[in-house]
């Protein structure tokens, strides 16, 4: 079987940090609901690992650093402070903040 493509395929461009942004939102919700902090930590670490694996960390360095800071604060039992760091990371990753300046 032969597959041929005619013309150019459309380029797909995803917003850098999409998975990290999603996990931050979930983490904030879970922390509000007083969920198990260990699960929140695992999910945030997994999202950072995924971000690094696909090469996005440098593109969203400020948000990644905020998430790392939140992880350290959660490890220290500082949930409110961690939530502030996650909120800052989320605002950094918002589509409006990521839009190119012309």
UniProtKB/TrEMBL annotation:
Organism: Kibdelosporangium philippinense
Name under which the protein is recorded: Uncharacterized protein
Recorded superkingdom: Bacteria
